[in-house]
Amino acid sequence: xxxxxxxxxxxxxxxxxxxxxxxxxxxxxxxxxxxxxxxxxxxxxxxxxxxxxxxxxxxxxxxxxxxxxxxxxxxxxxxxxxxxxxxxxxxxxxxxxxxxxxxxxxxxxxxxxxxxxxxxxxxxxxxxxxxxxxxxxxxxxxxxxxxxxxxxxxxxxxxxxxxxxxxxxxxxxxxxxxxxxxxxxxxxxxxxxxxxxxxxxxxxxxxxxxxxxxxxxxxxxxxxxxxxxxxxxxxxxxxxxxxxxxxxxxxxxxxxxxxxxxxxxxxxxxxxxxxxxxxxxxxxxxxxxxxxxxxxxxxxxxxxxxxxxxxxxxxxxxxxxxxxxxxxxxxxxxxxxxxxxxxxxxxxxxxxxxxxxxxxxxxxxxxxxxxxxxxxxxxxxxxxxxxxxxxxxxxxxxxxxxxxxxxxxxxxxxxxxxxxxxxxxxxxxxxxxxxxxxxxxxxxxxxxxxxxxxxxxxxxxxxxxxxxxxxxxxxxxxxxxxxxx
Length: 485
What we know:
- The structure is a single chain.
- By secondary structure, the protein is an all-alpha fold.
- It has helices spanning 2-5, 10-22, 27-41, 47-57, 69-96, 99-116, 119-128, 136-153, 156-167, 176-192, 196-203, 220-234, 237-245, 248-254, 259-269, 273-287, 297-313, 321-327, 332-344, 366-396, 433-439, 446-474, 478-484, and strands at residues 318-320, 350-353, 358-361.
- It has a three-stranded antiparallel beta sheet with strand order 1-3-2.
- The longest helix is centred in the C-terminal third of the chain and has 31 residues, at 366-396.
- The chain is flat, with a radius of gyration of 38 Å.
């Protein structure tokens, strides 16, 4: 227990010990975890949590873990004094309008509240430094502080938002270690939301080894464990090789993970799937004591097993179920049920021959698939070419209908106000004298007669146009014939 707790500092150490104390591990382990938590709390200002834990163990612990009222009073007094000092300094900084002084004042106030265990108030103070950051380094520092508070608050939306804000800077402007902290935190946020593939990509894309620099949130071994499990659950052997087994940075992290994690990754890459699954089963009790992993152990291990079975069947067209059950250290009935589930979910393409105890896979011939793809591409190219030639020919011989004067293109003519739709109406520009008479208003008179004549002339022109149109329609369409040829 003590060796495990020493991988962490501050809030991470206390939170994990409290999580273990609430797990069904027995009273001895619970008491040991609470005592270690009390020891760590003596390095903070969180007297409220100290009182709660002492009340839980006061009847079971020795005199060395009795309530220390002198320590509590001293810490509370110092906290109040420090709070008043920072408040006055921040007031002075605001009056001088010096951005750097204001930023440092809010950051120190946030650190004090974070040590006190007031996460929400610390989160607000860190957010207030955002408007006073003048360099990329200061902005990244603000993002890290906001992210560590958001993780404890389980506010994963803010985690992703501020990781992306920091990643918006050019690569050279961000310290690799700081970028690694942010991506590790983003991976935890994805993991907590059940998004295992993005989590795997975040954990396996750290630019530098974390070491112990992020121990107040995560250890390097945690990053390796989370990244390996998420990768095995969502990636094939090729991706596992690129991102986990043969990745330089992640390989260094993997050396700090439990030996079962390294064995599982190497066995999975070596196609020893049964051995890899057994290593993960040995790791299950440890994973159940992890606050970020406990709720996802069952789902992740099931996904890893499904991925392993799928990868095992991929090279074969016919597979003996007896040999496969032996490779996965299970019985034939259980394996057959797993295969039925994977076939139903379309993760495996095939069918089970229960008489001969074999899995028959449906594998498409690669040569035939290539031919079909080539033929489809050729047909698409031919169709596109014919369409372009037809359009070019129509434009060349002026066979494109253009809207008449005053007509909106591609819109049907709308009747005038008060009129309903008229059936059989001629198109505009081809109406005869009736069109002129419809627009004629006022009856007689010189002006009216002139207007009527004008409308009649236009009607005559329309009739002439219609006559020419009829004559053209009677002639053979040489343009269309040429296009057809």
